[in-house]
Write a structure and sequence with these properties.
Helix content: 55-70%
Number of strands: 6
Low-confidence stretches: 331-349, 370-396, 403-420
Strand content: under 5%
Largest sheet: 2 strands, antiparallel
Mean pLDDT: 75
Distance between the termini: 114 Å
Strand order of the largest sheet: 1-2
Oligomer: single chain
Structural class: mainly alpha
Order of helices and strands: HHHHHHHEEHHHHHHHEEEEHH
Number of helices: 16
Radius of gyration: 41 Å
Shape: elongated
């Protein structure tokens, strides 16, 4: 470890200078020899570093999502060239080049933090051994050795023996209790960060080896922190716990406001966005407009949550535009369904189907006299009666008038019945 720390010694002086500047500020408030002054100086160093690494974090998010998108294509290449590793590597590099994706981009924040981590470890190790390092002189060294965080010296380790800890003015019990609690918190924060990434911000519609790899890391990283944590000084544990908490909060913000398409976080985000847009009638934030613009551009390729979002806007009388804005739609206009096919807009009246009559209703309707419906010409001016239905004392019926072909219409009762009286025969034109 000393060899690795010495390799990063070029950054030891800048790191020690930043710590001393923060110590000057906090020392004037809490006292120069207190654990609060030195502990908050390390916390401030972490915050400063992480603020500078925000662009790399954004690049990491984009690279991770691009890798998730390429997983199906990568799986096809692995299956196609499973017996030719060299061709498989060439096709992988070609795929990365065409998509503009770099697999190492997802590791940039961790790689960028490594020099600062080892430089801080080297500084704290020098304090523990009583050696000046960087801009930390003898007076600052003595002040740092007196600083205790909840009874544990800044340079103490979990595995230090009683004599070493007694020289730093602490006991074995105090140091091990404090370091054990910090190691547990450090591992738990790392586990929760990876778990919320896997359960909320991963596209569940695509099952790839990448997801299995991330799931494995969810359990491997906390174990690694627990194993290496017993060899870290208290100051380094403060540094690593702070950076884990920062990562957890930063990731929670990203998952809530810019989730991965197809994930559970996206469904929850679009549900909140639907309520906001339907209440205000427009999209206010710029980031929300970018997401709506991407959803509109997908068309038929939208996932279930995105289709539900578009349908909810349509039901509310709103339409998502190609620029990401939302406008009120005309009630008579043609809306667009979730799969991109046109349908009647909201508010258009639906055609009602006639109720179907039962057999008894049709028979009772047949027995009642019906009037012929008006048409161009009536079929007959007198109702036709069958031979059995004519009264015996009635006058002879006038001769039947032959209706013109195609001009007469039957009544509703006659046109829709099979049983009952016989229909009058019309003369056919030969």
């Amino acid at each position: 470890m000393d060899t690795i720390a010495s390799f990063f010694s070029f950054i030891t002086t800048p790191v020690s200078w930043v710590i001393v500047q923060f110590h000057t500020v906090y020392g004037s408030i809490f006292g120069p020899d207190t654990g609060w002054a030195w502990g908050l100086s390390i916390v401030s160093l972490v915050i400063l570093i992480r603020i500078c690494l925000i662009p790399l974090f954004v690049k990491q998010i984009k690279a991770t999502r691009a890798m998730q998108t390429l997983q199906p294509e990568m799986k096809k290449i692995q299956e196609r060239y499973k017996n030719d590793k060299q061709r498989q590597s060439e096709e992988m590099m070609k795929l990365y080049k065409e998509s503009g994706t770099n697999p190492l981009s997802s590791c940039l924040p961790i790689l960028a933090q490594s020099p600062f981590f080892f430089a801080l470890y080297h500084v704290l190790n020098g304090i523990a051994s009583g050696k000046t390092i960087g801009v930390i002189n003898d007076s600052l060294l003595e002040s740092a050795r007196k600083a205790h965080i909840f009874g544990a010296p800044l340079a103490a380790k979990f595995k230090d023996n009683a004599d070493t800890l007694h020289a730093l003015g602490a006991t074995v019990t105090d140091v091990r209790v404090v370091t054990a609690i910090m190691i547990i918190l450090m591992s738990a924060s790392q586990f929760y960060t990876q778990r919320q990434l896997m359960t909320k911000n991963v596209d569940t519609s695509v099952k790839t080896p990448f997801m299995q790899q991330q799931k494995m890391l969810m359990y491997v990283f906390p174990i690694m922190f627990a194993v290496f944590g017993i060899n870290f000084p208290v100051g380094v544990l403060v540094y690593w716990l702070t950076t884990n908490v920062w990562t957890m909060g930063q990731q929670m913000y990203v998952i809530r406001n810019n989730p991965t398409p197809g994930s559970k976080a996206q469904a929850a985000y679009l549900e909140r966005l639907t309520g906001h847009v339907t209440h205000h009638g427009k999209v206010r934030s710029r980031s929300a407009r970018v997401i709506v613009k991407a959803i509109v551009a997908k068309g038929r390729d939208r996932n279930e949550a995105e289709r539900k979002f578009i349908n909810s806007l349509t039901k509310a009388g709103l339409t998502a535009q190609a620029d990401g804005n939302v406008v009120k739609s005309d009630s008579q206009a043609v809306a667009q369904t979730e799969d991109g096919t046109p349908t009647a807009a909201v508010g258009a009246p639906r055609r009602q189907q006639p109720k179907r009559q039962s057999k008894s209703q049709r028979q009772s309707a047949q027995k009642q006299p019906h009037e012929a419906e008006p048409d161009d010409e009536p079929a007959s001016s007198t109702p036709s009666l069958t031979k059995s239905e004519e009264p015996q004392d009635a006058a002879p019926a006038p001769p039947k008038q032959t209706p013109k072909p195609g001009s007469g219409t039957r009544s509703k009762a006659q046109s829709g019945q099979r049983k009952g009286g016989q229909r009058p025969k019309s003369s056919s034109k030969k």
